[in-house]
Design goal:
Number of domains: 2
Distance between the termini: 82 Å
Oligomer: single chain
CATH topology of the largest domain: Beta-Lactamase
Strand order of the largest sheet: 6-5-4-9-8-7
Number of strands: 9
């Protein structure tokens, strides 16, 4: 009679995953299952099951001869974390300068799937902090000024897929909820290299955003200026764009040469 292995809890599985990752990190060369099981104290069948799940997600790579090594997904995530940390450190001085010039809140947002996540903010003392712009808050791409920048970057077909996937839900009566209207809005963003949110995420709040690019030319974030609707000034758009351009250059971005030069 055999004793069935007790089904581990989700926390136990995560702990075992981390143990296996740590064990793999200690070996410069690919490691066989037997060695990993010995290093971690896990039963070989348990280690094999968890490694298979991690290999499916790209966190681990399995060689043809049954050896394992850390996967490329970890490199991708590590690079992403590094770029975001560098982004915040690089951007904060220019964010504060823009805040002082305008007296309004300045936000730094990055993309996470179909949403924008706010990772840094300079608060305005002239009004209460709006919930949507608290650091860590999220909002849909199509309703946020920063999100529209990323949708432009995606291209026409990806925008159609986004609209079909999300249904373009509204946050306020001003939110764009139809694909045709969104495409027209994105065309304006493309032509002016700046995006607006006019009471589309939260009633009484308007934003201007411009894109921040890294040394590879990739759009990695949006810098946005948020104001109460009664203080909104579209003439600040060039200032927001210039600030975003300075941050991009500090990250190593080199703008393409004009064809006339």
């Amino acid at each position: 009679m055999t004793i069935k292995e007790a089904k581990p809890s989700s926390i136990q599985v995560i702990e075992r995953m981390m143990t296996l990752l740590d064990a793999l990190a200690e070996h410069p060369d690919p490691v066989p299952l037997k060695q990993l099981a010995a290093d971690t104290g896990l039963h070989p069948s348990t280690a094999h099951r968890i490694l298979a799940a991690m290999a499916h997600s790209g966190f681990v790579e399995r060689g043809e001869n049954g050896v394992y090594r850390l996967g490329i997904r970890l490199l991708e995530l590590g690079s992403l974390v590094k770029s975001r940390l560098s982004l915040r450190e690089t951007a904060i001085a220019d964010m504060l300068a823009l805040h002082q010039k305008t007296g309004e809140s300045v936000n730094l947002g990055i993309r996470d799937g179909d949403q924008i996540v706010y990772v840094e903010r300079t608060s305005s003392g002239r009004s209460a902090v709006r919930v949507v712009h608290i650091v860590g808050a999220r909002a849909p791409l199509h309703t946020t000024a920063t999100g529209k920048l990323f949708l432009v970057e995606d291209g026409a077909q990806a925008v159609k897929e986004y609209a079909r996937r999300t249904g373009l839900p509204s946050s306020t009566p001003s939110s764009i909820t139809e694909l045709g209207a969104l495409e027209k809005e994105l065309d304006r963003v493309r032509r002016h290299a700046v995006a607006f949110d006019l009471d589309e995420v939260e009633n009484g709040v308007r934003c201007i955003a411009a894109g921040i690019r890294d040394d590879n030319g990739e759009l990695i974030a949006g810098l946005s200026l948020s104001t109460p609707s009664e203080r909104f000034n579209p003439d600040w758009a060039p200032l927001v764009r210039e600030t975003a351009e300075r941050i991009s250059k500090a990250l190593g971005y080199i703008p393409p040469r004009s064809p006339n030069l």
